[in-house]
Amino acid sequence: MSEPPPRVRVTGPPRSRTRRVRPSGQAEIDAASPLGELYLTSLMRDQLRLALRTVALLGLTVGAMPLVFFLAPSLADVRLAGVPLAWLLLGAGVYPWLVWLAWRFLRRAEANERSFAALVEEVER
Questions:
Q1: pTM, full prediction
Q2: Which of 20, 27, 36, 108 holds its CA 20 to 30 A away from the CA of 118?
């Protein structure tokens, strides 16, 4: 029996590593640099502003309902299809409003995140 030929190592051409790496926006954020912190702070400020506006709108509408019924007691006597107006507003009118507010909040929060991602991507160029 003859011996098998020796194994040969096959490699590709040598690669040069002269490419200069620029810090990207995402790297700035990951490294917690002052610039990355500025980016995150701006996103968090936008998201907080949106949340506060949404909660204020909720408080002014749904939160004001008991006050309206307290200040105008004659509304307690109003009935639609035999159901008191307060029950209709609180039982059926509030939920579509909450769904709309949640939908609006979600869409605007996503828009904030998209603009933030575009800003970070712009820095990478």
A1: 0.67
A2: 20
Contact of 90 with 65, CB cutoff 8 Å: yes
pLDDT in tens, 24-63: 566 666 667 777 788 788 889 999 999 999 999 999 998 8
The tally of domains found in the chain comes to 1
Q: What is the pLDDT of residue 29?
A: 66
Count Cβ atoms within 10 A of the Cβ of residue 88 and give its class: 0-12 exposed, 13-18 middle, 19 or more buried.
middle
Domain residue limits at 83:
25-124
Task: For residue 88, tell me if it sits in a domain.
Answer: yes
Measured N-to-C along each axis, helices 34-61 and 94-124 cross at an angle, to the nearest 10 degrees, of: 170
